Amino acid sequence: MTKLIAQDGSQRGEKITYGLEKGNLQGAIFSPKDYKIQSIKKYVGNSKYLNQENTFLDPQFYYYTFNNGIIKNIKSYPDFNFNITSNDFKPYSYKIDNFLEKHSENTKGISETLITPGFYMKDLDWHFYNSIDLYNDCVKKYISKFNTFALSLIISVSFFSDKQKVDKLIEDLTNNVHKKKYVYLIICYEPKKNKEVDPLCLSNILYAIYKLQKNGFKFILGYCFLNSIIFSVLNCDFVASGWFKKLRRFTESMFDPKNLPYARKTRNYTSIPLLSCMPENHLRDMVKPNGLTYEMILSGTKNDKEFKNKSPLSELDFYQQYWESITLILKEMESTGDFKSRIQVMKNKIFYAQSLYKNALNSLKLSQEKIAEKNTRMESKHLQSWLDALDIFELEIKK
Q: pTM higher than 0.90, yes or no?
């Protein structure tokens, strides 16, 4: 089964603890950018739900080719305020060696998996190949200290628009990674407000994961949002998602120190029937006498009754409802059966969600609620992208 784990970040509070207690989460991946390693170790040590198998430490090495405005916020690595270049790998500079030792030391005691440092990449350049080298060297150097390893890659979504490059990435990872374990994959999106991803890019992401799984890799997918639902078709081992938008969708704005503060909090409800997560007022606008009912769009989560009755719900309640909804879908996909069946089930879910949206749009159009109609149309746009991506993906794997 694909397991949902928390993507750690600022203002954690008791969010992860509650998620683990309620069964909405099955682990966590922690952020040294936001918390000192002593704090992370204490948090893990005090949790009866976290263990070495379901706990991970993101090295966040992808920040280190950027300016010190971001780097100085990585609290667990205070001695590494520098910009790394390709020259640091001919051979490893003292900076690289020191980072590897520090990261290994920090991970030990938290996790049995060492996530190796990796770069942000837009092409198959030195960032990519040195990430592979770092992985291979870490496996060789720390094999006695860790049970397993994860190669971290953060890849621009635009990279996946070129199928030839994707095929080359698959080939090079397969041929050059000496001991195939996990890939910790983060997709870096363009800083746009829209939720949908170009279908070709999404299909190539699915294709890359699928082929690499066939070649012996397992996957931890970082900074996932509703695309956790799509990735469940591939039965990835872990998908990680947080509470703020910036912990659910990694964008290039994360590399800009001016944009480091987290976005304002919103009260979003996650609807499994609509395959959407949206502001609660957008969802309530769809509920009309001649449109949708709450019974048609609620997810079957613990706070649904309160949501329907408009009882006060906290921001923490909405965060937990999101995680609970994703976990419910992941469990359903696990019980679906084989790979082809999961694809068909996912398509059927998308068709059904589109039919609900069509019903809501017809109702809003009749009542001339133009703002609500616009919001509803916007909330549904990702569904066609998902459907088109699945169609392209199916054609590719049949070749």
A: yes
